[in-house]
Amino acid sequence: MTTQVAPQRVAQRITSPEQALETAHRLAEQFSPTAAERDSQRRLPVAELADLFASGLGAITVPQEFGGPGLSNRVLAQVIAILSQGDASIGQVPQNHYYALEVLRVNGSPQQQRRLYQEVLAGVHFGNALAEFASKAAHHRSTSLARHEGQWQLSGQKFYATGALYAGRIPTAARGEDGKEQLVFLPRNTPGLSITDDWSGFGQRTTGSGSVTLEQCPVDEEDIVPFQTAFERPTPVGPLAQIMHAAIDQGIAKAAWQDMLQFVRSRSRPWIDAGVEHASEDPLTLDRIGKISARIQAGDALLAVAGEAIDVAQRHSDALSVAQASIEVATARAWTTEVALAAGNLLFELAGSRATLQEYNLDRHWRNARTHTLHDPVRWKYPAIGNYVLNGVLPPRRGTL
């Protein structure tokens, strides 16, 4: 019998882009005042994430034909960036949720879509168990999905399982008996499934990106969705995954920028050679702030272009539309990676030594940026962009570009 997962709290319904953005801003304002404390104490945002998924934001990409608002990817990127500015760890947690929903959209059967989308509309949070820690290469997976006495079983060890600690279902990547990868939408209470809070990264400290252990977990066949085929043909699954990572970095950059402005205005002292009374009047400080502000604003524009390209690829998926979306997203991701790191560093250059005091915990912005930007190396994005614009070579179809 197929298991239906119930939400922690029944979610509100969001019906428009304006409502989604207003909700994201409201939640970010709620999360922001305690973000530094959560980071320093590594206090998991259980209540905050419950509020997020009860708000209805988890369902904004559910297609209209299944009762959702089917909002654009431009809006999705804005929502992720807004949440990440409020708290970068909280902003990252829904990324895999929306990623799983896109795999469901392109590869799920109508019955699977109807059932799982209804859970999401009700407020169920999907986590993830995709990556593995001990494999020879990052993209290799040894987790197996096999039949045993007529019952599908899932066995393996996962890590970097962002959001799994908080989720009602944990979409898990596994290799089937035919060698093809599947995505198993595994209920959290499945026997043999255990989640360990052993993430010790110095940034993104409360994402819950630790271990998931699967010991002969029984699997309902209705919870198995083809995964590998989402990359064997042109689909927007890959660029959709990546635009959210770009949006997370954009949010981190804005958070560092905002704290920098506030600190320079209220606490920093001018350098002796500036000849001014306030640090906020220092001409070199004004120059640096002007430059980083322009770069951050450009990040918003690049995310908008990338989101619109994904929208096109979702409506008409072919090799060219998906390639264009991938390149636009790679451009945005490369840009926001560099700007997030730069903003986290510039904060200290302009705010001064006082900003390094632990009581402010301002280094969390740089730590968050440095940790999250390791997710997919920028050094592989620029050659793909260059090869496309110069030689017309289509980029690889995968979730890491």
Structural class by secondary-structure content:
alpha+beta
Stretches with pLDDT under 50, minimum 5 residues: none
Global morphology: globular
> How far apart are the first and last residues' alpha carbons, in Å?
38 Å
Protein name: SfnB family sulfur acquisition oxidoreductase
GO cellular component, one term: cytoplasm
GO biological process, one term: fatty acid beta-oxidation using acyl-CoA dehydrogenase
Pfam families: Acyl-CoA_dh_2 (PF08028), Acyl-CoA_dh_N (PF02771)
Tell me what the structure shows.
The structure is a single chain. By secondary structure, the protein is α+β, with helices and mostly antiparallel strands. It has 3 domains: 106 residues, Butyryl-Coa Dehydrogenase, subunit A, domain 1 (Orthogonal Bundle); 85 residues, Butyryl-CoA Dehydrogenase, subunit A, domain 2 (Beta Barrel); 159 residues, Butyryl-CoA Dehydrogenase, subunit A, domain 3 (Up-down Bundle), CATH 1.20.140. Helices cover 50% and strands 11% of the residues. The strands form 2 sheets. It has a 4-stranded antiparallel beta sheet, with no helix packed on it. It has a 3-stranded antiparallel beta sheet with strand order 3-4-7, covered by helices on one side. A hairpin with a 2-residue loop joins strand 1 and strand 2. The chain starts with 16 loop residues before the first helix and ends in a 10-residue tail after the last helix.
